[in-house]
Amino acid sequence: PQYWPGLIETYRQYLPVTAETPVVTLNEGNTPLIPVPSVAAEIGKQVEVFVKYDGLNPTGSFKDRGMTMAVSKAKEAGAKAVICASTGNTSAAAAAYASRGGLKPFVIIPDGYVAMGKLAQALVYGADVIAIEGNFDKALEIVRQMADAYPITLVNSLNPYRIEGQKTAAFEVVDALGDAPDWLCIPVGNAGNITAYWRGFCEYHQEQRCSRRPRMMGFQAAGAAPLVHGHRVEDPQTLATAIRIGNPANKALAIAAQQESGGEFNPVTDDEILAAYRMLAKQEGVFCEPASAASVAGLMKHKDQVPSGATVVCVLTGNGLKDPDIALQQNTDQFHQGIAPDLEMIANIMDL
Ligand code: F0G
């Protein structure tokens, strides 16, 4: 077709699908790689920095890449329902793709720790949402048991098709740049996406679509950084609720990606995350959610390690509109409420 047909059709030869697989797609993928010169200027050394803005996927996050695969394969296998645990984005994507494919979505979330936009999406797309007293790690434990005990397909990133779909983001980065970057900076929560990117770069490298593979630089919120500390975190805390995870399901594969690529896991504080979040929006016009800004925060924190002339890609995993509460809280000084409709008064506020 002349239009972008979605990532399964585009990358079919690299994906475990057959002519019989019923493709459930919202034409996801093909997200832009956007230069961010103000971030590059902070680093200097003729470094080039791009963001892979995966918040422009159909439900506003990279999860759509995994969900088109997971739901297509679930449908192929005859499943009637899917279930996931989620900090929000997985639930939105699962709900949208399951409903589109004629499957029933169920999601289990940590009560009080899912951003409002994501919760709204899951409900609007038709999921039954069960909010539990407990964090994401507990919710994941429960859905794993449920998928074992009941006829329902698990669509968390433990589902191998999720990783397969998500690896296409690395293909797109290489297709756009003409080669792999030197560094790939990425937020890490349940550790599926870093695993997927690494697999994508390795497969493209093997096919000689790129001449090298990047260093995988994973960043975790300082209060939820099990891969930095090397052990699980019992009570993970961060305002970046998307990555508020203490016991990542894909930790073994993520550690392999870090080690094979000569990469690192490092923490970024909530303040550093918010500084990058503000900078991306106010200097580059790119609005991502807080968890996504961890990649840029991490790059800036480790700028001394970036080699001169390097090409760096930071993954922006989710759209800023997902979390309107934080967006509003962070910018109260710009919001002038209850003002009389008076020209002089308004001009005064505008400092004219
Ligand atoms: N960024 C965003 C916006 C996310 O929603 C997530 C994970 C990550 C980064 C981390 O990716 O888990 O593959 O390491 N969100 C999951 C969810 C946990 O339920 O939506 P990861």
Automatic annotation (TrEMBL):
Residues 82-125 form the Rhodanese domain. Its EC number is 4.2.3.1. InterPro entries: Rhodanese-like_dom, Ser/Thr_Dehydratase, Ser/Thr_deHydtase_PyrdxlP-BS, Thr_synthase-like, Thr_Synthase_bac/arc, TrpB-like_PALP, TrpB-like_PALP_sf. One of its GO terms (biological process) is L-threonine catabolic process. The modification N6-(pyridoxal phosphate)lysine is found at residue 63. Coiled coil: none annotated. It catalyses: O-phospho-L-homoserine + H2O = L-threonine + phosphate. Pathway: Amino-acid biosynthesis; L-threonine biosynthesis; L-threonine from L-aspartate: step 5/5. GO terms for molecular function: L-serine ammonia-lyase activity; pyridoxal phosphate binding; threonine deaminase activity; threonine synthase activity. Pyridoxal 5'-phosphate binds at residues 89, 189-193, 317. Its cofactor is pyridoxal 5'-phosphate. It is an enzyme of class 4 (lyase). SUPFAM superfamilies: Tryptophan synthase beta subunit-like PLP-dependent enzymes. Keywords: Amino-acid biosynthesis, Lyase, Pyridoxal phosphate, Threonine biosynthesis. CDD domains: Thr-synth_1 (cd01563). Belongs to the threonine synthase family. Catalyzes the gamma-elimination of phosphate from L-phosphohomoserine and the beta-addition of water to produce L-threonine. PANTHER family: L-THREONINE DEHYDRATASE CATABOLIC TDCB, THREONINE DEHYDRATASE, MITOCHONDRIAL-RELATED. This is Threonine synthase. The gene is thrC_1.
